[in-house]
Amino acid sequence: MWNRIGRWIAPALMVLGALAGLAFAWSSTLDYSRHLDRQVHDLRCGFVPGLAAAPGADEGCRAAIYSPYAALMRDKIWGGVPISLWALGTFSFFAAFSVYLLLSGRNASRYAVKTASFLAIGPFVVSLGMAYLSATRLGTFCKTCMGIYGGSIALFSGAVLGFLALSRETSSFAADGERDTAPAPPARAVGRLVLVPGWLALLAAAALTPPLAYAKSVPNHDEKIAACGKIPKPITGKSTAGMKASLTRTVSSATRTPVTLMIDPLCPSCRALHRRLDTEGFLEQMDTTMVLFPLDSSCNWMVTRDVHPGACQIAKAMLCAEPKNQAVQVLEWAYDQQELLISTAKMQGASAIDGYIEGSFPGLGACMKEKATSKKLEDMLRFAVDNQLPVSTPQLFLGDVHVCDEDTDMGLVYSLHKLAPQLKARSF
Fold it and tell me: Which residue range forms the structural domain that includes residue 315?
């Protein structure tokens, strides 16, 4: 294929990029699919496919896997169809195509090189788009996603090198008068016209086969979605057992779905669920009652150890902020400052976070120390006792239906669509 760059370096770089993209797409798909059995699993998400990342290094991966961009058809299939399946099929096609160019060497068709250069634009542009979403919408990058981006860049770079080498070689032939100007036989001309659409069809088939096969084989979870039962004493209206809080972003007269959220303000899973509901656009359609259930033994007699020390302080701050319509602001502030508040409470004691609360929300300190505030919180805790609920957070209830914990993460959109069809996920 004309010179060393075009004959070996360009296709070798394409092979390397395609195989890297294929490996990371496979790793990402496995990571996602392991969460679709309604069980809890750790994330692997490392730069080396198949090897687990270091502890605490999976936040970017967690944000990506729970984001609206991780899967398609999430309201039709529990967990959706992982977008990495498209990448898996696409890189499989390019791996085969690149190996063909590498093994063909000088005998590779010039049309094949041009076609490879054109087709390689696709995964490169998609990777740029996904990287932009990660930076602007998620604020973090998934390691396996970065591996796919790197594979796309290497694949595209090799294709461009091959195209440039071909162009220089063609120009050299023309300058030396060696270019064959004889018209191509009719059969070859027709073959060239058919070849490019054929490669496009192969690429489309390769990209679509994994997601279509997955969509056909995914199990049906409908019977399990409502299997967690109902609560005998749901909260109706504004009562002493719950704190009514508008979590809407816009004012609307539309009928809202009654929802009860049992949360701990220093619970990372509660924060994750809150942000998923917000990102998906569900919060603005919900008439939400929050039941505060801090996993902190200083106020919760059902907890034998301080899972989240300081959570009682935040809960009391929310109760004191409710008359000022600032309860949700306190909650979202606690979610934003969660790591700082948790570490401060563990190192200096729960009372140490009072200063942070007073600094951000002046005037709540005296109210937090009142017996009436403790009594309100105790009434909330009795909601779990009256309904014989497990001592855990978060817990989500649609009316009196207890949404299973497994349906509040990967299958959130599908489960809410089934249980409350009036709730619509935001279009992205």
Answer: 243-419
